[in-house]
Amino acid sequence: MSAHVFTYGSLMFPQVWQRVVRGDYRSAPAVLDGHARFALAGETYPGTIVRSGASVAGIVYFDVSDADVAALDAFEGSEYRRDRVRVRLDSGELADAQTYLYLLPQKLSESPWLPEEFQMQRFLGTYCRDRLGE
Q1: Helix or strand holding residue 16 (H, E)
Q2: Which SS3 state, helix, strand or coil, does residue 69 take?
Q3: For residue 73, is it within any domain?
Q4: For residue 132, is pLDDT > 70?
Q5: pLDDT tens-digit profile of 69-88?
Q6: Is the backbone of residue 77 left (phi > 0), alpha (psi -120 to 50) or beta?
Q7: How many CA atoms within 13 Å lie on the side-chain side of 61?
Q8: Do 58 and 7 meet the contact criterion of CB atoms below 8 Å apart?
Q9: 53's torsion region: left (phi>0), alpha (psi -120 to 50) or beta?
């Protein structure tokens, strides 16, 4: 059984995604309505929470294998919970997907997390060091 996976933070970037999963997946831009993405104080990655009237742009990966979903679960850790959501593709089509919602809203800053300001090298050096040679 495979699942579509909506990513909105570090996993939107192929340099991170490919260090976590083994498969090669088709992907497309998508939007998750009813949620907001915030920076975490002192961190390079964001957290997304339910927030009426807000939306989060990201990438949906299609038909991700169970083994790779398990790898994503391990990568995300205990501060996130994988939930089923509905995302909107650029075509307007809706798709069911899994995403990781942040469980510790008290750690979120009031600042939005901006993909264009993602500190890739800092993130890779901190969270993907054991995956760099793979």
Answers
A1: helix 14-20
A2: helix
A3: yes
A4: no
A5: 999 999 999 999 999 999 99
A6: left
A7: 22
A8: yes
A9: left
State the Cα–Cα distance between residues 70 and 63, nearest whole angstrom.
13
Whether residue 87 contacts residue 97, with contact meaning beta carbons closer than 8 Å, is answered with: yes
Total structural domains within the chain: 1
Provide the token pair at 101: 């919602």
- DSSP-derived letter for residue 6 is E
Q: Is residue 131 part of a domain?
A: no
pTM for this structure?
Answer: 0.91
The 3-state DSSP class for residue 68 equals: helix
| Structural domain that includes position 39 | 3-121
**Is residue 108 assigned to a domain?**
yes
Q: Is 90 inside a domain boundary? A: yes
- CATH number of the domain at 15, please: 3.10.490.10
